[in-house]
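Troubleshooting log. The previous structure file for this entry was overwritten by mistake, so regenerating from the original sequence record. Sequence copied from the archived sheet and checked twice against the printout by T.R.
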Amino acid sequence: IGKNSSSQGGGTNCQAGLYKGAEVLQSARSDAQKYVVFLSDGEPTFRYNSNGYTEGNGQNDNQNGHVGANAQAAYTQAAAMKGFTGFYTIGISSSSDSTFLTDLAEKPGAEEHAFFPAKEADDLAEAFKKIIASITEYTCRDVTITDTLSQYTELDGIFAPVIQVTNQDGNEVT
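Regenerated output below.
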């Protein structure tokens, strides 16, 4: 990703990646919070057929008049995935299919979902920051920790402690 990156080739089987993701989710701890982050550098160009063999031309999602068959296979696989809270997609190149990735993010019916375009490294970092912000729950805010010094503590002449006492409403008490 970036100015000097080379073009990618070889095709993408998005359905295969989602299938593997579903396997990982099934083996995860039951008490864990689970999120899926799906990255793609293009469009779906392969899929599994009904016999489990790979089909597709590796160039686009149009094979023998079956336009969108690779995307549909990925959508079906994503919709079948269960047991997670969030599903995020990130397009990591200028050739990422944003329509496909936006639609894919919605297919599993996850409580939290979004698509992030990330054509450059900074965009990718920003996408992960947004994902982290959406999945991180703070249990405390504006917390003050008070450490009471014992009678055995001596302060040297350089250190002058600042003591402020506040009530539960945050108002200073004198």
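The beta strands are 35-40, 47-48, 54-55, 62-63, 66-67, 86-91, 112-117, 165-166, 172-173. Archived copy saved in two places this time.
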